[in-house]
Design goal:
By secondary structure, this protein is α+β, with helices and mostly antiparallel strands. It has 3 helices and 8 strands. An 8-stranded antiparallel sheet has the order 1-5-4-3-2-6-7-8, with no helix packed on it.
Length: about 180
């Protein structure tokens, strides 16, 4: 038993989990890297700038929605603070198998016509499209994270308002095809 504990302790100290630190300094660049690349310590030069806490936390113009499946994530109250991000893990996964698979068209803007877009598999929390309040994409390995903000179209069960706008954390609009 002690050998197993020694192995686990050794693994936890040698693995870089690449989430927002729970203690110490936090950087805006690191927060953007966590949202964009699921890696707080990402060192590449392609992190989106400029970075604002408002965009990171709630507008989702340049970043995906905030993953609220984990234990730590920023609140929705303004003003936002960097301390709200401590321990945030953007790719903390929810099992896709516990959700409802649907085939949806996607467009970042309504003018791009989600009804004509290539359809892919996404996941919702409810069996009916109009009743769904959460939208996820498969990040691989059967783990789901919030889908990108934009307009989603369900052909087969969409009803009279098959297009829904997802802002990265909730649906905010429903309507017909453009």
């Amino acid at each position: 038993m002690q050998e197993i504990l020694d192995i686990l302790i050794g693994l936890s100290s040698s693995v870089d989990w690449a989430v927002v630190p729970s203690l110490g300094a936090i950087s805006m660049r690191g927060l953007a890297a966590e949202k964009q690349y699921d890696d707080y310590n990402y060192t590449g030069s392609s992190v989106y700038t400029p970075i604002s806490l408002l965009d990171l936390a709630e507008t989702f113009v340049n970043f995906e929605g905030t993953n609220t499946n984990g234990v730590s994530y920023p609140n929705s109250s303004k003003p936002h603070a960097m301390s709200e991000w401590r321990g945030y893990d953007h790719d903390y996964g929810l099992s896709c198998s516990s959700l409802y698979a649907r085939t949806l068209g996607y467009a970042p803007f309504l003018a791009n016509d989600p009804c004509s877009a290539i359809q892919r598999t996404y996941y919702t929390d409810q069996s009916f499209w109009s009743a769904s309040v959460q939208l996820y994409r498969n990040q691989g390995g059967g783990s789901c994270v919030p889908a990108a903000a934009g307009f989603y179209y369900e052909d087969s069960n969409g009803g009279s308002n098959p297009v829904r706008e997802w802002n990265g954390s909730t649906f905010v609009w429903s309507g017909g095809c453009p």
